[in-house]
Amino acid sequence: MYQIKLDKRVEKELDTIPDKIFDKIKKVISSLKDNPRPLGVKKLTNQEHWRIRVGEYRILYEIDDKEKIIAIFKIKHRKDVYK
After folding, report:
1. Has residue 14 been placed in a domain?
2. Which domain holds residue 63?
3. Tens of pLDDT along the chain (83 residues)?
4. Does residue 45 form part of some domain?
């Protein structure tokens, strides 16, 4: 089982997300503990980062298989996430 680490910026970003989507995001983050590369996840080009979609939002994270840590560093609307 992997451990989830949230960047401080992510904690602030979560406060701005509507409640309906927030609950879905919480479930997806929780499911990453058991499977950090679920169906639908994509590896970002030329980076060691991964992306998973939750409606119009994207969760960007890194996986450290050695230490069993998932570091989530960005959760934003799809129009803003890659800026």
Report:
1. yes
2. 3-77
3. 999 999 999 999 899 899 999 999 999 999 999 999 999 999 999 889 999 999 999 999 999 999 999 999 999 999 998 77
4. yes
